[in-house]
Amino acid sequence: MSTPIPVQHTSTANVLRQFYALTKPRVVQLIVFCALIGMVLAVPGLPSWFDVQRAVLACIGIWLVAGAAAAFNCLVEKGIDAKMKRTAWRPTARGQLSDLQALVFSALLCAAGSALLWLTVNPLTMWLTFATFVGYAVIYTVILKPLTPQNIVIGGASGAMPPVLGWAAMTGDVGPEALILFLIIFLWTPPHFWALALYRVEDYRKAGLPMLPVTHGNEFTRLQVLLYTFILFAACLMPFIYGMSGWLYLAVAVAVSVGFTGYAFALWRSYSDTLARKTFRFSLIHLSVLFLALLVDHYLH
Description:
- By secondary structure, the chain is mainly α.
- About 80% of the residues lie in helices and about 0% in strands.
- The model is unreliable at about 1-10 (pLDDT under 50).
């Protein structure tokens, strides 16, 4: 009796995992976390039940639109992603999902998130979130990234928007506090990404992307990382100076900023891929701890 030949098929669960991967979950989680910090800081004292409901809906809407932008980015950069070890696993780069599937998925997420923000939060938050989608998915991905080594600097404006979105969701406007949070992330983005680009330089060169280490070299990029951490250090003090936060935040901000600057200084003095990788990883710790300190300090200040 012959053995039956198994039928090859793609399970629904596997397809769902591929679509989920398109949303760059870890990046989107950080985006929503930063937006949530903006929401919390915008509400004096303990939030009411209405505030909690609005914050939850806003987080869902922002997650949907951010996931849509990530999926569109994967679609546009599938050829580049396929050439880079860091991104070659993405479903679009491997051909596991078609261009049409990725495009429809991105459009549906963006439409659903925008509608949710418009109907349950406020129009300002919807328009700011949609503008962020356009800024990242179109202006950064399609125009800036392949054309200029300053792509991360200019495109960083989109990545710095989450606290502004959170603030707008709760207040219906954009206050100076939200702009301070925007400035911190905007200045954090270049040293964060350039540290990554330093030890992934061959990937970027192979992909034909004009990242700073490719166009200006290793030494110049290391200097830029160091200089940006100095400016970032000053920006991280602004919530305390403006009165948004108290001494707890200040202590944490100084500690993590000294750490980030220390890594950047060591990297400038003597380069190694290992040190660049450690600098990149610490940059993630820096931003996460900084915003967590803002959150805790808000209820103690």
